[in-house]
Amino acid sequence: MRIWSLHPSHLDRAALVACWRETLLAQAVLAGRTKGYTRHPQLERFRTQPDPLASVGAYLSGIADEADARSYRFDRTRILAPASPVSRIPVTEGQLALEWMHLGAKLDQRSPTDAVRWRAASPTAHPLFTVVPGPVESWERATTVVT
Question: CA within 20 to 30 Å of 128's CA: 37, 50, 61, 99, which one?
Answer without folding.
Answer: 37
